[in-house]
Each structure stands twice: as C-alpha cells, then as structure tokens.
Amino acid sequence: MPLRAQSRLSIDAHVQNFSAGGCCLEVLLGSYKIGETVWFKIAGVESSMGTVRWIDESLVGVEFAQPFDPAVFEHIVSLNKLEELERAA
Fold it and tell me: Which domains are assigned to the chain?
C-alpha cells in the first residue's frame, strides 16, 4: 500500500493488520513520528488519511481519520483477499 506523509514522497508499506478503524503497517524505508498525519491508498478505496498512533521498530500503527463503514470494510477485505490469491497463483 502506498503511504505518504506531508512533504514526502510516497513509499511502499506492507499491511500487517487491518480493521475498520486503523491498521498496522510495516515500513522498511523512511521514518514517522507519533501524531504525524499520513495518507495512504488501499485497493478499492479512494486515498484516505490517518494519524500515526504508535511505532515499534519498522511497524507503524495508524488510526484512520474516518473509520470505514462495516459494509465498505468487508468490501475492502474481500477485494484484497482476491488480489492475494491472484498473486499466489
């Protein structure tokens, strides 16, 4: 998933955990600060915004500015599971 903080280039982040209200991302490049606003792009959804809530080495916890509606969340999960299956084939 592309991840970007203000005035920085977008980097690739790997989703480790995903919920309607936030996510845990593995970020191998760049550094972030607790409280920093970030923008990200999830397959099947417009770009969204969140706030860095915690950091543990290369893992970054992001709280979404606007939690996803349960139906939208289920749609995102199903789209991304399909993409994972297609990549594995």
Answer: 2-88 (2.40.10.220)
